[in-house]
Amino acid sequence: MLKKFYLLFSLIVLMGFAEGLLYAQKPVKPAAPAAARHKKPFAKSWLGKVTGTPSLQAEEAKPLVALPLTITDEKNVAYNISSYQFVYKRIGVTEDEETGKASKQTDIVAQRFTTTPLPNVWQKNITEGLHSGEELYFFDIIVFDRQGRRFFAPELKITIQ
Length: 161
Fold this sequence. Notes:
Layout (H helix, E strand, L loop, with lengths): L1 H21 L11 H4 L5 E5 L2 E2 L3 E2 L1 H4 L7 E5 L4 E18 L6 E12 L6 H10 L5 E10 L5 E4 L2 E5 L1
Parallel strand pairs: 3-9
Antiparallel strand pairs: 1-2, 1-4, 4-5, 5-6, 5-7, 7-8, 7-9
């Protein structure tokens, strides 16, 4: 009797496993990643007529500070800027209190912005003190494409000669 019970119990358990295999869900294939579905447009960052990593004279760069940052693609379509970060690497002179000698020292001022051009306070401070060796650096530029998707635009770094 015990033998029949074990045989019947084993048969029921085996049928339960078999039923589970028959009705099991098939694995879902993962969807293609967003990057594979949508190709990022080839864009350029512009400040006036300047793009990339140019070296300019201080007098050439001063008027650029007041111009808006624009992002365009190869078809000259402009993109809306969500935000960007700006760094002004300035060079100042410090005096050693013990020796009395003056030496150059760099200082960085940075902030994240959501509007372009730069605020008037920034424009004024940069144009009044801009001189050789300093840098204007726009980076982490986030823009929206026509479908509202965000992507990073290329950075823009201007070195003052």
